[in-house]
Amino acid sequence: MKNLFTLISLSLIAAFFLGACKQTPDDYSIDPGLEYFPLEVGKFIVYEVDSTIFDPNGDSMIFSSKTFVKEEIIDTLSDNNDNLLYKIEHFERAADSLPWVIKKVLTESIQDNQGIRTEDNLRFIKLTFPVKKSTTWDGNIHFNDGLIVTVEGETLEMFKGWKYRVTQVNEPLTIGSFQFDETTTVEEANNENLIELRRSTAIYSKGIGLVYRELWILDTQCIDDCIGKPWEEKAEKGFILKQTILNHN
């Protein structure tokens, strides 16, 4: 009888420990952040773009302009590797009372956990998934970062020294007239020396996409006489661009 009692007791103890060690299903899963790069036919975003151009050969060293930009996903297609691409028409107009004029067509896609934008024959990796703070990558890996870009007749190595890095994730932010509950900020470039400034920041909102972008692409040869001067005063060529969302669906 004692042996039977001992056997039952040992069985109960074993069952207790087996039950205690049994793993329960883990329902937690990481949000990859794909909503920061939404792709859907019919989706559009309208931006106001403020540009400041530095042109040493122009009538004025500095001139500013305002442009309205609309990007709309109109169709899908497949590339040579059978990847799904979303076709986007890019429209511009100088005032909101004028008709939209199509300027170019580009594509966006999600491939290998990367948000890809192909524009002007350049392939950019705009985001990587899952979206995590401090993640870094070479967003311009598909082309030479020494590529020469011409702005008002002046040549610039626009993409020199770019390094993409996520600086903020899922943060509330007010941009223009919008209050966004969740935004992610990507520092695309932050590189400066005595004669060059390359600074680019992009902000994305969940379910919308890009809601703000700011670029400072400036060069100067003014060194000794310009120590301590801000770039707005010493820049001799290049541009400052600020792109802010106005409307979306």
Tags for this entry?
single chain, 249 residues, mainly beta, 12-stranded antiparallel sheet, two-stranded antiparallel ribbon, 52% strand, globular, disordered N terminus
Helix content: under 10%
Number of strands: 14
| Tally of separate helices | 2
- Low-confidence region ranges: 1-18
- Using the alpha-carbon principal axes, give the shape: globular
Question: What order do the SSEs take from the amino end to the carboxyl end, as H and E?
Answer: HEEEEEEEEEEEEEHE
The figure for the number of domains is: 1
Overall mean pLDDT stands at: 89
How would you write the strand order of the largest sheet?
Answer: 6-5-4-3-2-1-14-13-12-11-10-7
Termini gap: 78 Å
Question: Given the helix and strand composition, which structural class is it?
Answer: mainly beta
Main beta-sheet strand count, sense and barrel state = 12 strands, antiparallel
Radius of gyration, whole Å: 26 Å
Strand percentage lies at: over 45%
